Amino acid sequence: MLHIHSRGRSLGLAAAFILVGATVPAFAADKPSDPQIAHIAYTAGAIDVKAAQQALQISKNEHVRAFANDMVRDHTAVNDKALALVKKLNVTPEDNDTSKALTKQADEKSAELAKLSGAAFDKAYVDNEVAFHKTVDGALETTLIPSSSNGELKSLLQTGLKIFEGHLKHAEHLASTLK
Question: What pTM, to 2 d.p., does this model score?
């Protein structure tokens, strides 16, 4: 994990669910709380659903569209489980600098992708999905899962990681077929 020092505190980039070309958000290396972890993970899922919906509006490539449909289905399912869990635990997800930065960067990337069409859009979208899932998977594995103190949240994040590792392989394969 990459670290930056600021005001004497180490800032971890583990929750940096960056989009290609975006600035890296960071949060204090102080262990994130479960409400912060829940919000970061939910935000990342919502970002990928929104990106996939954009791909479904723009792309004509059947393979890109099938991938985007998988992203909508899987990230929506994980986020639905996350919402049910926080309700069951009576926890309020906590917005934070990382989740705010993620949303801002996603909006910027969406605007960038909206200017593209055809093969250029498909390649940019899929390349972004590769980078996004590499970062999400790394953040889950190195920071969010180990930092989670609630067993049910940790289990949900571990399940999500397995699903998202499959997404990464699918995105990498798809990227290798696009020009």
Answer: 0.83
